[in-house]
Design goal:
The structure holds 2 protein chains of 2 kinds. In chain A, 0% of the residues lie in helices and 54% in strands. Chain A has no helices and 12 strands. In chain A, strands 2, 5, 6, 10, 11 and 12 form a 6-stranded mixed beta sheet that branches. In chain A, strands 3-9-8-7 form a 4-stranded antiparallel beta sheet, with no helix packed on it. In chain A, strand 10 and strand 11 form a beta hairpin. Chain B is mainly beta. In chain B, 0% of the residues lie in helices and 49% in strands. In chain B, the strands form 2 sheets. In chain B, strands 2, 4, 5, 6, 9, 10 and 11 form a 7-stranded mixed beta sheet that branches. Chain B has a 4-stranded antiparallel beta sheet with strand order 1-3-8-7, with no helix packed on it. Classes of the chains: A mainly beta, B mainly beta. At the A-B interface, strand 5, strand 6, strand 10 and strand 11 of A face strand 4, strand 5, strand 9 and strand 10 of B.
């Protein structure tokens, strides 16, 4: 079954520290894309970072990096130097390119950044 | 550049009423999708479209219809609203497959069915 699992319903991190949000995925497809989105309390979905299944290097975007371990089927998001504005819901998602055009989302992790 | 727009932002319906949620994008994206987000859950795909005239079902299509007559617009129709359809609805679009293929989301429509 194609599935995204985020096992941490909530996480706390001290301001200026790094935090890792876990994501594992399940698919038998060889070609797929992995995404992380941020959803602040205002409700909009903000794209953070993308990793293609054939990309050998881990993706980075500013303070965000994606720790991609293909054999383990994990795509963890690392946020360095946390800021108070990072407090939000974070969703991991997988885009599949065969059998249609579908994106599957995990249930999300709520991150709380403490001052 | 407006990106992805959705109207209305909020809507209250009575059980059995029908309505259309509007979605438009001005980025010339081929791919468009509708999702619903229920409290404490991620997004679930309702319907999607890979281009004008082509639509397909996602995970939770029952009770919803879509059509795609133009590249820009992708309306979602609720045929006979039920309380189980109370949710936040997001429309998204993306350019195409491969590369970063990022989905851009609209601001959402919060729907309550009484």
């Amino acid at each position: 079954a194609q599935k995204i699992t985020q096992t941490q319903p909530g996480m706390f991190v001290q301001e200026k520290e790094a935090v890792t949000l876990d994501c594992t995925y399940d698919t038998s497809d060889q070609s797929y894309g992995l995404f992380w989105y941020k959803q602040p309390s205002s409700g909009e979905m903000i794209f953070l970072i993308y990793q293609g299944s054939y990309d050998e290097q881990n993706a980075t975007e500013g303070r965000y990096s994606l720790n991609f371990q293909k054999a383990r089927k994990s795509a963890n998001l690392v946020i360095s130097a946390s800021q108070l504005g990072d407090s939000a819901m974070y969703f991991c998602a997988m885009r599949l390119y065969t059998g249609g055009f579908k994106t599957i989302f995990g249930a999300g992790t709520r991150l709380f950044v403490k001052a | 550049n407006a990106g992805v727009t959705q109207t209305p932002k909020f809507q209250v319906l009575k059980t059995g009423q029908s309505m259309t949620l509007q979605c438009a994008q001005d980025m010339n994206h081929e791919y468009m999708s509708w999702y619903r987000q229920d409290p404490g859950m991620g997004l679930r795909l309702i319907h999607y479209s890979v281009g004008a005239g082509i639509t397909d079902q996602g995970e939770v299509p029952n009770g919803y219809n879509v059509s795609r007559s133009t590249t820009e617009d992708f309306p979602l129709r609720l045929l006979s609203a039920a309380p189980s359809q109370t949710s936040v609805y997001f429309c998204a679009s993306s350019y195409g497959r491969g590369g970063t293929d990022t989905q851009y989301f609209g601001p959402g429509t919060r729907l309550t069915v009484l």
